[in-house]
TrEMBL record:
InterPro entries: O-antigen_ligase-rel_domated (IPR007016), WaaL-like (IPR051533). Residues 202-356 form the O-antigen ligase-related domain. Keywords: Ligase, Membrane, Transmembrane, Transmembrane helix. GO terms for molecular function: ligase activity. It is found in: Membrane. This is O-antigen ligase family protein.
Length: 418
């Protein structure tokens, strides 16, 4: 009898240990999500620990982790990007390269996505049931904290375009948008599903985005929120109408309050487009169009070719000799070409482009499979931003992408019913 009891106790230890590690993984991932907004180095360390905890949890759970191809689609696409970036780095990285920053950021992306496979897999297969919704309301408050911090940088410190201390205003904008969406969506997962509070939260996030002055986020975020509201109320036309009217009214009021910075960015965009059409690429949008054109030309010339950062720079220089409107590109060859698919295709050919497209497709498939409204809004933000810039790059935003996906899968009620 004592031997039988001992065996039963022994068998229960891995289960108890995996349960503790699983909860610790998600709590640390949530903390890492927020830290990534303000501290790149610390967020990377916390993320690595989260990845190790996820690996240990999956090992302890063993065969009890039920994975089918539908669940594995998203983790597999994440792993694919990680491996592609790792191979590219190992093939082309040289010491004392003038493009050290490019290689450094790509190896960081590879690490984040390879570790991220385990975190996302754990979230997709987790059986954790959250009966207490306090954590959802806690997540809801995050957007208000973000707006408060943004207001301090803007009006107290006096920044023209806030950057949250991570280096760039665009990086801050993408971080705010992604985390803000999680914060807003969290309230729709509560039993009362407060749609009005979702709208209020979205307005807070939009206000912070305006302070970054990042046009793409300012344009993309309201569209995603409207799509989310429409999807949420699709079966209730009356509430749908009221929700959209309320949301648009608040946006109009907000637009009037921030009319000057919005008008300034809009006028600058129109001026950039006009100058580019006249043959001048030395503007913000003009440089972006030039990058798109040069990246597409590189891909069309040799769709199967993998290039080092140095090779890409040399080939772009040759293009500039033939077409002076592409001259702004030389300033960005040590960064990226401001479009996720074009950037990857210019360095890794058709395989690189396929890796990004496969990730986007896997995101939308997972939205369908898990019936996750939150993941739907989040995926729209990732894809929409990726078509106008590169966010699967460096540390902070890839960390936010992975941790955000994990949290949205975890808080998706439909996940537990699969």
């Amino acid at each position: 009898m004592s031997v039988s009891i001992t065996r039963q106790n022994w068998k229960s230890y891995p289960s108890k240990a995996s349960s503790i590690l699983e909860k610790a993984t998600f709590l640390l991932s949530a903390a890492t999500l927020l830290v990534a907004m303000v501290d790149n180095n610390l967020s990377m360390k916390l993320f690595n620990i989260s990845g190790i905890l996820a690996i240990l949890t999956l090992l302890l759970k063993g065969k009890s982790t039920a994975i089918n191809w539908k669940i594995a689609a998203l983790p597999a696409s994440i792993l694919f990007i990680g491996i592609i970036n790792l191979i590219w780095y190992e093939l082309f990285k040289v010491d004392n390269s003038p493009f050290k920053a490019t290689y450094h950021n790509y190896i960081n992306t590879a690490r984040v996505f390879i570790f991220g496979v385990f975190i996302v897999t754990l979230a997709a297969t987790s059986k954790i049931q959250y009966k207490n919704t306090a954590i959802l309301y806690l997540l809801y408050t995050v957007s208000f904290i973000i707006l408060g911090y943004a207001a301090v940088q803007k009006f107290v410190i006096g920044m023209g375009r806030i950057d949250f201390g991570i280096g760039t205003s665009t990086g801050a904008a993408y971080s705010i948008m992604l985390i803000g969406l999680i914060s807003a969506i969290s309230i729709l997962n509560t039993p009362k599903s407060h749609p009005f509070l979702f709208v209020i939260n979205a307005v807070m996030v939009f206000s912070a985005l305006i302070m970054t002055g990042t046009r793409s986020s300012i344009l993309i975020f309201p569209v995603i929120c409207c799509i989310t509201i429409v999807t949420y109320y699709l079966k209730n036309p009356k509430r749908l109408f009221l929700a959209i009217c309320g949301f648009l009214t608040l946006l109009i009021v907000l637009g009037l309050i921030f009319s000057q910075p919005i008008a300034k960015r809009y006028n600058a965009a129109m001026n950039d487009i006009n100058l580019y059409q006249q043959g001048s690429g030395n503007t913000s949008l003009g440089a972006r169009f030039a990058m798109y054109e040069s990246g597409i030309n590189l891909f069309e010339d040799s769709p199967l070719k993998w290039r080092s950062a140095e090779d890409r720079s040399r080939e772009v220089q040759a293009m500039i000799v033939q077409d002076k409107t592409l001259s702004p590109v030389r300033l960005f060859t040590n960064i990226h070409l401001h479009n996720e698919i074009i950037e990857s295709a210019s360095l890794k050919g058709i395989i690189g482009a396929f890796s990004i497209v496969a990730f986007y497709v896997a995101l939308m498939f997972s939205v369908y499979y898990f019936k996750s409204l939150g993941l739907f809004a989040y995926s729209l933000a990732i894809i929409g931003t990726g078509l106008s810039d590169v966010i699967i790059w460096a540390r902070s935003i890839p960390i936010i992408i992975i941790c955000g996906i994990a949290i949205l899968l975890l808080f998706n009620k439909k996940r537990s019913e699969q």
